[in-house]
Design brief:
The chain contains 15 helices and two strands. The protein is mainly alpha-helical. The protein has one domain. Strands 1-2 form a two-stranded antiparallel sheet. This is Alkane 1-monooxygenase.
């Protein structure tokens, strides 16, 4: 059977539906509380990491010329996820605010589990959808982001991150020796304003004012206010607080992933505001099998940045000659990132080896490490 024919098989797409396993787990957690509240983190992080160890790496290279109509079973999971996530978030809020027998600690732990679903899975699916040309898919991506109050991510990701990754213009390119906790607050502080500047520049180039109806921030605001209003209608002020809590947990998990994806990797400054083109070497690559099933190949991140419009089933992997490699999949790496000394011990030698391999001619890395190289020409 050819590579392309294999991709058409529903069974080949089935492992990417691993995310559905989280839905019965959140029901169990909400009903029983207690020790069951560990189930969602255990499923998304520990079990997947164990499966990565058992299954090893998947180095298959799908046929990138596979037609769109062959990918229906892969796309389907991203298309159905928004109603599933909405049911999980608001169903949990209704349950907690209408007499669930859970104490305060159990409620927070339950909303953390919901945040695992909306952050680890929902934002990853939104990321896939917002890269597509299909208008319905982009709308579904917007709806998923609104459900975690992070709508500006669309603008920041498409108009800033993909253009300026590995330069000081991109806030989510984590710097060498920068701990996650410092990175997280820097990103939370800088990215909304950065996204607004990017849209303002885009509108100015089209000779439109910032209040023009084409500014997506009006849509972002309307969708997020609707999401908050629905939470209030279902659970009052408590429901509103629970909604915000799951959004915080989801955003934290997104930014953990962002931190891992480009830690310490920079593009070479060529002078006069110019940087080298984005290459596979500017993202950490991970082809661990199970975590790529759960995260729909997000860990083949080197290829995603090299070919941003390539759908997830067709993303390629790279060997160590072409792209730097993570020792574990994202679930294991994000857990490590929460402990900066352990993270630096594991990752800093890899960054230094990356520098020697690709940029032996750069003698002083201080401006790159501190984000003091000039802003890219054409950025804000």
């Amino acid at each position: 059977m050819s590579n392309r024919e294999e991709l058409r098989r529903p069974g080949h797409a089935l492992p990417f539906w691993l995310s559905l396993g989280t839905v019965p787990l959140v029901v169990i957690e909400a009903w029983f509380g207690g020790w069951t509240l560990i189930l969602l983190p255990a499923y998304a992080w520990w079990l997947v990491t164990m499966l990565d160890t058992l299954l090893g790496r998947n180095e298959d290279q799908p046929d990138t010329e596979t037609p769109e109509d062959a990918l229906g079973w892969y796309r389907a999971i991203t298309l159905i996820w928004w109603p599933i996530q909405i049911a999980v978030i608001y169903g949990t809020i209704w349950w907690v605010t209408h007499g669930a027998d859970l104490n305060g600690f159990e409620i927070v732990a339950l909303m953390f589990g919901v945040g695992v679903i909306s952050g680890t899975i929902g934002i990853v699916y939104a990321h896939e959808l917002l890269h597509q040309k299909n208008r319905m898919e982009r709308w579904l991506g917007d709806l998923l982001l609104a459900s975690v109050l992070y709508s500006h991510f669309r603008t920041e990701h498409l108009l800033v991150h993909h253009l300026w990754v590995g330069t000081p213009r991109d806030a989510v390119s984590a710097r060498y020796n920068e701990g996650f906790h410092r990175f997280f607050w820097r990103v939370i502080r800088e990215c909304p304003a950065s996204a607004w500047r990017a849209e303002r520049l885009k509108l100015a180039r089209a000779k439109r004012p910032v209040w023009h109806r084409s500014n997506p921030f009006w849509r972002y605001g309307a969708l997020q206010l609707t999401a908050l209003a629905l939470a209030f209608a279902i659970g009052g002020w408590a429901g509103l607080g629970l909604f915000v809590l799951q959004a915080i947990f989801a955003i934290w998990q997104l930014e953990l992933t962002n931190y891992v994806e480009h830690y310490g990797l920079t593009r070479e400054y060529l002078g006069e505001g110019r940087y080298e083109h984005v290459l596979p070497r500017h993202s950490w690559n991970a082809d661990h099998t199970a975590s790529n099933w759960l995260l729909i190949n997000l860990q083949r991140h080197s290829d995603h940045h090299y070919k941003p419009d390539r759908r997830f089933p067709l993303l390629q992997t790279y060997d160590a000659e072409e792209a730097p490699q993570l020792p574990f999949g994202y679930p294991g790496m994000t857990a490590l990132a929460m402990i900066p000394p352990l993270w630096r011990r594991r990752m800093n030698p890899r960054v230094r080896a990356w520098r020697k391999r690709y940029y032996p001619h750069i003698e002083d890395w201080t401006p790159y490490r501190e984000g003091r190289t000039p802003m890219p020409r054409g950025s804000v």
